[in-house]
Automatic annotation (TrEMBL):
Keywords: Iron, Iron-sulfur, Metal-binding. The keyword Hydrolase does not apply. SUPFAM superfamilies: Radical SAM enzymes. Transmembrane segments: none annotated. It comes from the Bacteria. The keyword Metal-binding applies. Residues 64-301 form the Radical SAM core domain. It comes from Sediminicola luteus. InterPro entries: Elp3/MiaA/NifB-like_rSAM, MJ0683-like, rSAM, rSAM_sf. This is PA0069 family radical SAM protein.
Length: 358
């Protein structure tokens, strides 16, 4: 049962201090009382889109336990507001809070398609899958207005370059025409996150995301068009969605996913404080139980930063989750394989299709 001071439509319930900043911003009680007496809103809870102009867009991923080598993010911050999102911490690098700012101050990279084209046309670049997005969702609500992800897909198609997508938004079906063209040459793989089959759970965990029904329908639509889909059952949170593993695996498999993956929740950096505040306001009756179970998976802490362990956890609860995942894969994904994307075509298209006639 949610507490009375729960902020609807958002994941984070506060703006916590940015560890890189000296000054602290807080709302004082006298200011809140002034707003109340004057009939004004102290916080209008609106999303702002702010253009930024990076010099590069493709990032090399050095982490040994992340399944990608290169990523790019058309947007920083994410209006989906997933309470557990590891990307929240990256918003502090831009001078914002990992809390509400992450969901409401969205940084827009309009130059992303041009920067991408420059990168994959460079003489030193050798084709390797670039993933949209390794940090924040490339199909979050901002994409409806700015269409940066679509423009980037057009670049990948033009140069026959492999691309992966990670999203939990059915908006990607808007670009089905491009995805189908990429799939003809095995240049596209899609990862769709499905965290729960319960809409009540989704609404509090991921308040501004596509419904579970639409995500499953997206998996089915992509699969029917020969676009391979990996279902990401992530994160698994003990006491919240850990009991759904088999049901989730069956649902995504039945809708056409060819593989599944999972991570066990870890609350690194500022996320521990944000999640703890959120769960006490959202699920106060089981808040401490859930927090203690997460700690039991990470050696008594809400976070474990060790490579190879941090996304898997250890201890009895983690072992039980791993056993369920193993069973789910054996039962619902036997003989299914997510294909390796094609890196052979790009070199011939690096300077555009005219190279075919030389």
């Amino acid at each position: 049962m949610k507490s009375n001071d729960y902020l609807k439509g958002r994941g984070a319930q506060q703006n916590i201090h940015n560890r890189f900043l000296k000054d602290i911003h807080e709302q004082r009680d006298d200011f809140l009382e002034f707003c109340r007496l004057d009939g004004e809103e102290a916080d209008r809870n609106k999303t702002k889109y702010l253009p930024i102009f990076p010099k590069t867009i493709v990032n090399k991923v050095t982490s040994p336990d992340v399944g990608m080598h290169y990523s790019m993010n058309p947007y920083q911050g994410c209006e989906h507001g997933c309470i557990y999102c590891y990307a929240r911490n990256s918003h502090e690098f831009w001078g914002y809070s990992a809390g509400l700012d992450f969901e409401r101050q969205i940084l827009i990279k309009k130059d992303a398609p041009r920067l991408l084209e420059e990168k994959i046309r460079s003489k030193s670049w050798k084709a390797e899958t670039i993933v949209l997005s390794g940090n924040t969702d490339c199909y979050q609500p901002a994409e409806r207005e700015f269409k940066i992800t679509r423009a980037c897909l057009e670049v990948f198609l033009k140069y026959k370059h492999p691309v992966g997508i990670i999203t939990k938004n059915a908006l990607l079906l808007r670009d089905l025409d491009l995805l189908k063209e990429l799939a003809k040459d095995n240049l596209i793989g899609v990862n769709i996150s499905v965290t729960s089959l319960s809409e009540d759970t989704r609404r509090i965990l991921e308040p501004r995301t596509t419904t579970i029904k639409k995500r499953l329908e997206s998996i089915q639509m992509l699969s029917e068009n020969n676009i391979p889909v990996n279902a990401m059952l992530a994160p698994i949170i003990p006491g919240i969605n850990s009991h759904e593993i088999l049901d989730l695996a069956k649902a995504v498999s039945d809708h056409g996913a060819v593989s599944m993956a999972f991570t066990l929740v870890r609350l690194n950096g500022a996320i521990g404080q944000i999640f703890t505040d959120w769960i006490h306001k959202t699920l106060p009756d089981r808040a401490e139980k859930v927090l203690h179970q997460i700690e039991a998976c990470h050696g008594g802490s809400l976070n474990d930063s060790r490579f190879g362990v941090r996304g898997k956890g250890d201890g009895k609860i983690a072992e039980h989750i791993h056993a369920m995942v193993h069973l789910a894969k054996a039962k619902y994904f036997k003989d299914k394989i997510f294909p390796k994307l094609n890196t052979e075509l790009h070199e011939r298209y690096k300077v555009g299709q005219l190279s075919l006639f030389q």
